[in-house]
Amino acid sequence: MIARHRKTLAAVALLSLSGAIGLYGAYGVADAADGIVQPGQQSGNSQGVQAPATQPQEDPAVARGRYVAIAGDCAACHTDPHQGKPFAGGYALETPFGKLLASNITSDKATGIGDWSEEQFTRAVREGKGRHGENLYPAMPYNAYVKVSDQDMHDLWAYMQTVPAVNNQVVSNQLPFPFNIRLMMMGWNLLFFDKTPFKPVTEASADLNRGAYLVQGLGHCAACHTEKNFLGGDKNDRFLQGGDLAGWHAPEITGNRYAGVGGWTSEQIVQYLKTGSNDIAVASGPMAEAVTNSTQHMSNQDLNAIAAYLQSLPGSKATKPQPLTAVQQAMKQGANVYSANCSACHNSDGKGINQLAAGLGNNPAVQAANPQSLTTTVLQGGRGAVTLGNPTSGAMPSFAWKLSDQQIASVLTYIRNTWGNAAPAVDAHQVAQTRKDLKLPAQMSADGSAR
Amino acid sequence: MQRREFLSSALALAAASTLPAARAEVVSGGQPWEPGQANLPALPAPRQGGLAYFTQAEFDTAGALADRLIPADELSIGGKEAGCATFIDRQLAGDYGRGATLYRLGRFVKGTPEQGTQSPLTPAERWRKGLVAIDAYCQKTFSKTFVQLDGAQQDELLRGMESGKLELGSEVETRELFEQILANVREGFFADPIYGGNKDMASWKMIGFPGARYDFRDVIGKKGQKLTIIPTSLIDNTL
Q: What are the phi and psi torsion angles at A244 (to 5°)?
């Protein structure tokens, strides 16, 4: 750190002669050269992307393990985004069944996993068993991590042992009766936990197999992007064909050209995962966190492999319906609302601004059968993923105070059926329900009379 | 010091002293606000009866003043119907009325016209004292309140205030009062309807102002052509 600090001072002294623009460039390079970021450093605010201390004499297994931890996005749950120490747990996961707190997985002996054996650790990650064989809840995606290879598990263990100990006692199980009975998960595991390790497809390319390994295993993409049954198990026949979570709809990400990413180039997918946005879409909501914590730090080769695998999936049978025509009242109102409120950033041609404001035409998320993410975004606003490649990202303000439920429904119907898009109309009742669920204010009165 | 010298030395200073610290904020971290938070226009809550600052009599007088300054004609509705008095009432109850951004610690010395108002009064106080003085003058001269005068008499009084020929007494600076009334009535007539005036965007429709829009790239090339842009206000359920 001291050496780096000195380097910075020297750079400042030198560049103060040549002006501010030069300075900027130099810092950009310095940041990029710092390489992989320590996972778990992301919080929702300005301390988002931090460069790690480089350790010259690091064990290669630890370096590989750090990458495994990044690809597995362990920090998403095990690091509390609100000023939590890396991997110290305590972050509350809201499940349909109740609240679970992510555990402390630092090397602390008393409250973390410092006293665990490698076997116990591996069993927890891949089989969902606690240190003493008790069942973990599948909020921990062991049903995906079961695909992680022995080598990666070993490296991950090597890395986790280097994570600084943090004493933080977490009582994970905050579920109500009867879900708080861990033994119930035995039945769940029987029904939904497929223990098969990852099997490469022999006739597929190494690239495709690598992509499948990352998507099915470490990436645990299915946790959000696959629909769940009423017991929270994956509907495996609808793998990655879109799923609902509180306030959001994770769209289909298969090769389906209408609903999935089949119409994207692999460069577009890689850019999205690397920087948080491309010329079509901006990652926001839970996906923004996934990009910031995980995918932006993955190698281009791995991201290309992921893109190739996703596009190889046939996906759902969803096909483009006939677009709703402009004669309908909602489309007219939607066009007016769009032109006054949205076009400044998203453009009248719906193309948005690359890396800043999402394009709306041909964007699968915009045409998803379930418009939940759109409704949530218009009502509460959103922030794009913050990454090293796109450090300030874009943001959208909340329109809850400005637009009525009907106006939001109409403008969403409009963007879902313009610029080549086609999708079912959005209902004002759904907007009203989301407004209520998110506890957002009602539209203000037009003359400011009622509050 | 030459301008160029000044600029380059300032830049070097800035680079050496402040930029490394500023860098952390500039380079990473997204936008400085959370989803779900909105900066709403600050509107004072109306008191009982719907008024925020004025008494009913003051409100009626303000409406009558607005209607003489912007009378209804073939171009638009008048200032009273447009809600100028409501706009002024709400503004006087808020930061503007309190003179929140004015230096008001004295000492107060009469200045030149270019120096603007040098009064210890806040806008809200000036309105209140001014309306008392106007009605006192009307009572003395016509044995009526301002509201009870006919249009010609009201105009005559306003002309007197504007020209400085009429003095409303030692309590108020008559010309300053007139200028404030005129300015506030105009503001109420042209401000966004969310603030209580400009009913149904009457003034915007009159002058062809498109309102609360912020993207004109599609029409910027249509120089000299008639643009049919529907005006819109901040909260507009007619869209």
A: -105, 140
